[in-house]
Design a protein that fits this description.
The protein is of the alpha+beta class. It has 12 helices and 10 strands.
Amino acid sequence: MNVLIDQQDVEIRDAVRQFLSAECPTSLARSAENTVQGHSVELWKKFCELGWAGIALATESGGQGLSLTSMGVVMEEVGRHIAPLPFHSTIIPALVLSRHGTAKQKALLPGIASGDTLLSFAVQEGSGEWWPDSAQTIAQRSGEALVLNGRKHFVDGFASSATCMVVVRVISEHGEDEGISCVLVHTNAPGIRNETLAPTAKDSQGVIDFLDVHVSADAIVGGGISAARMLTDYATAFSVSLLEGAARRTMEMAVAYVKQREAFGQAIGAFQVIQHMAADMLNAVDGTQLLVHEAIWLLDHGFPAEVEISQAKAFANEKCLMVARMAQQFHGGIGFIAEFDLNLWYRRITSWALRYGTTYEHRARVARALLDTEGEVRLGMPQFLPEAAV
């Protein structure tokens, strides 16, 4: 396993960084906050024209056919520039469709790669649990249709998406539980109500009510619980890429500041306590990057990656937030002012760290893999989780 990116991915990273440095100033991130769509339509159009929206989709679906690692590199740059793009919310369900979707459902993929179609996905409910097994939203079979009832919380990008992938519990006409599945639902279907939230990141999140929403039975995505777990694992892994990119940028901003800010006749970066904090910041962002690269590599090669994904997310939730807070401390009082650009990164890191599973949820999954799996634990080897543990 080589978790370091190759030359092709270095070139992809540099190209995305150059593009976003030119096209995504902080003023654009501010202007996208609290808007209905939560993203920049013009930036998304340019982003898609360069082929990055479908970077990991197959060429026959209009994508670039590159690796998940390449997509992770792009996601890191989106996080680095806090780019207001619906990339994460759209590409994650698209990847699930590419593996588990029917031919009709896969017809959505070329529109996703071109940027003409936006997707969203809905997992969490009132309990706040991230895992699909906790779903209580019901999809009741009724002849050739499904009738959805339930409420989903913390759904990103629903207002601007055309279709939402909803994790549901399918119930037969006779009341039998058929298990967990993903269902594609048109976001403008009758019976849907979207309550807009105001997260710390000030992006587009909502609470979605499904009140007797009728969809065709062929809206069920294949794969059942496997598709739902793929959805949550991919969403988690690539959210770590966003976190790492944003945290690394705050570290760089902080280091640049302490090199030129003077106190007692010298740059404050010369003080040992500042140097120790900077070293901790570097360890945090590099550690996050290595952990998520390992998890994505395993996903890319078809190996079990549940433990590695949860290791990366639990680590990133704490360490990336630590980096953002230290960056504020480096800047002193100005680092806490809303009008100061660093605050944009801090708010997003704070909000993203709470999404796609808390630190405690992911630590619990790692613990279950270590303690509830028979046989010796071999560090660095994929761990197979028991069905009931995920």
